[in-house]
Amino acid sequence: MRFQLTVEQRALRDTVRAAVGRRAPAGSSGLVAPTRRSRTCHSPAPLSGMQVAGDSQLRLDRGMWRALGELGFFSLRLPEADGGAGLGLPEAVLAFEEAGRALVPGPLVATHLAAGVVPGADTGEVVVAAADGRLVEWMDEADVVLPGAEGAVAMRSVDPLTPLHRVPAPAPTDSVAVLLTAAEQLGTATRACELAVQHARTREQFGQPIGAFQAVKHLCAQLLVRVEPARAAVYAAAVTEDPADIAAARLLADEAAVRGARDCLQVHGGMGFTWESEVHLLLKRAWVRAQRGGGRTESEELLAAELTV
Amino acid sequence: MDLSYTAEEEQFRAELRRWLATVLPTLPTKPSPDDWPGRRAYDLGWQRRLYDAGYADVHWDASPTLRLIFLEETEKAGAPYVGAGFVGLLHAGPTIAAEGTDEQRARWLPPILRGDEVWCQGFSEPEAGSDLAALRTRAWRDGDDYVVSGSKIWTSHAEVADWCELLVRTDPAAPKHRGISWLAMPMDAPGITVRPLRTLAGSAEFAEVFLDEVRVPVGNRVGAENDGWRVTMVTLSFERGTAFVGEVVACRRVLRELAVEARKNGRWDDPALRRRLGALNAEFRALWRLTQWNVSEAEARGGVPGVGASVFKLRYSQVRQDLYDAAAEVLGEGALDLRAPWVVDRLSSLSYTIAAGTSQIQQNIVAERILGLPKGR
Ligand SMILES: Cc1cc2nc3c(=O)[nH]c(=O)nc-3n(C[C@H](O)[C@H](O)[C@H](O)COP(=O)(O)OP(=O)(O)OC[C@H]3O[C@@H](n4cnc5c(N)ncnc54)[C@H](O)[C@@H]3O)c2cc1C
């Protein structure tokens, strides 16, 4: 049992981190809102609150999407004969963790799952959205919507970087989608922990860094205490592909991301409550992902049933 | 990322399983939890069997992965837990192996492995618990002996121990972390009084130990004089790093038993309770994966557990309490009957966020040593 990242896996993680980091550097919305009419998700310039808060349509940056395609983000698990990298779920999980860490926008999971099924999805030429649970993310920007979105109604999304539609009947849950969502949540939770610690080290009150105060210290420690078991659970689920492992990974990762983003916001004080700080984007994205299929109720029921077999 | 085991490791597991299947049915019945002399005999008898079968040194000589397999399989098979051997096997032994002289290793390690001698841990004092380095028990030199006076508290199974890993102050003038030494004290030396303390679970699990001019040979000091704090850190990393592996397996078994019980008594139809048990299943699965992760990491680093153990301990101690609270939900008013299953375990679980360093202290360690936040006041 060598349950650690291999040299190749580390390299892959670093490559993806560097690539999405360029798109979405620390501070990391990765987005800009150039005009009220159309905002394109690509530039690393900071968000301007009022612009993003408007109702104009959020545009997905096709250049970024193709770049992710070139990187192999969507085709990672396709056989080499089909132009993929022939890698497995553990590698996909590492890539999605990095995407979650950088809050890369767009229907990443849907397009990744469509690679090999929808022509052009693998290279990032085609953007695929999908109904997942009761939600469709990025429907208006997608070229293809799977399995169709009968009766979809636009919402005014709480996450300024994820346009949402609601569908009347919940779509069936795909276990790989559940796992990749967990991986994204893990990345976001990790980011929340990093941001909280960074702020706690530098922000001074009462003549010392706030991280010297135990109340703050303990918030930060708990951030890590949620991240580490979630990470072990997500990685293990990627190796075993066992439905109960995947459900467990999802539960822990959802909690680590949602609770972690809240605690990160608390550590940031008033700054955390502003639109300019990145923290609310972490929290809102975590909320959106938590509503995807295979979320809390489903996972808990699955894990309860597993106890009696 | 690989969760499979090597052929050699699988062979170890298979042989251990076979051996357990033949030997466990021949064990005498377990003594009652309050019968400490009985428990000592029982636990040492088990250790002796392990020794004779060649499994005794798995705690500190085998690779971390073999140790993991050992703890997993023995717990699954319902074998006795280390019990009275806990301190000797899981932290005094490894400390002496790492820090002792050849002579000290030869004197103390074989009897621990053979199940001949029991150790206890004399670290905490009435005025020095979390602030361990504030300890005041004094030791001064008189010829070839230290003369020790003071008192210790919460000393688990002190009344049946042969030896005590004892922290004493050998230089009262030095800064508090600098004047401490680590001694092996024989528990039958004149001047030692052990007064058992009753725990909230009703048992006499630990004791107060009073030391009145107890003579301990200078040769019983492990590490240099006044260098005991560093040796203590080695001890604590073993205490937190390896102690809970078997317990995670045990908790997963309890959780399944709870599901069975809930289905029997109708509580399973309550979706809130059912989902709570499902969520606990997620927790213990994750803790098991984290254990495998930490073990693999230790393996890669040559065996010594890292501070990551504090992360594990924090989560585990909390979830263990949640588990037994869920058991109380399943039992309903039955949870008020001390004879019902899990009730005494529920009481005992309250110690998990205190013993081996409180959760508050663990959070300080995680924040300062892993996350690099500044030391507070
Ligand atoms: C079942 C059991 C078995 C034990 N066995 C042994 C044994 O065999 N040998 C041995 O030496 N010891 C043993 N102990 C002692 C154990 O290590 C101590 O109880 C523990 O370290 C806490 O010390 P204390 O009890 O003095 O609590 P205190 O240190 O008085 O703490 C009281 C409360 O204050 C909090 N607190 C203290 N300092 C801080 C701080 N700096 N920041 C934030 N909060 C703080 C604590 O978290 C706790 O909530 C055992 C304890 C138990 C419960």
What do these coordinates show?
- The complex is a heterodimer of chains A (309) and B (377).
- Chain A has helices at 7-23, 49-53, 62-71, 89-101, 108-114, 175-202, 214-240, 243-268, 279-290, 296-307, and strands at 38-41, 57-60, 128-132, 135-137, 144-146, 153-154, 164-166, 204-205, 208-209.
- With 309 residues, chain A is of the alpha/beta class.
- Residues 24-38 and 42-55 of chain A have low confidence and may be disordered.
- The radius of gyration of chain B is 21 Å and the shape is globular.
- In chain B, helix 6 (228-242) packs across helix 9 and helix 9 runs antiparallel to helix 10 (343-349).
- The mean pLDDT of chain B is 93.
- In chain B, the strands form two sheets. In chain B, strands 1-4-5-8 form a four-stranded mixed β-sheet. Chain B has a four-stranded antiparallel β-sheet with strand order 2-3-7-6, with no helix packed on it.
- Chain B is of the alpha+beta class and 377 residues long.
- Chains A and B meet through helix 6, strand 9, helix 7, helix 8 and helix 10 of A and helix 7, helix 8, helix 9 and helix 11 of B.
- The site of flavin-adenine dinucleotide has 19 residues of chain B, from strand 1, strand 3 and helix 11.
Radius of gyration of chain B: 21 Å
The major sheet of chain A is characterized as: 5 strands, mixed
In terms of per-residue confidence, which ranges of chain A show pLDDT below 50 for 5 or more consecutive residues?
24-38, 42-55
* Helix/strand order of chain B, N-terminal first: HHHHHEEEEEEEEHHHHHH
Overall 3D geometry of chain A?
A: globular
Strand content of chain B: 5-15%
Q: What is the helix tally of chain B?
A: 11
Give the helix/strand layout.
The complex is a heterodimer of chains A (about 300) and B (about 375).
Chain A lengths: L6 H17 L14 E4 L7 H5 L3 E4 L1 H10 L17 H13 L6 H7 L13 E5 L2 E3 L6 E3 L6 E2 L9 E3 L8 H28 L1 E2 L2 E2 L4 H27 L2 H26 L10 H12 L5 H12 L2
Parallel strand pairs in A: 1-2, 3-5
Antiparallel strand pairs in A: 3-4, 4-7, 6-7, 8-9
Helix pairs in contact in A: 1-4, 4-6, 4-7, 6-7, 6-8, 6-9, 7-8, 8-9, 8-10
Chain B lengths: L6 H17 L12 H18 L10 H13 L9 H14 L2 H13 L4 E4 L15 E5 L2 E12 L6 E7 L10 E7 L5 E6 L8 E12 L3 E2 L5 H15 L2 H21 L5 H30 L7 H24 L11 H7 L9 H12 L7
Parallel strand pairs in B: 1-4
Antiparallel strand pairs in B: 2-3, 3-7, 4-5, 5-8, 6-7
Bound molecules: flavin-adenine dinucleotide.
The site of flavin-adenine dinucleotide has 19 residues of chain B, from strand 1, strand 3 and helix 11.
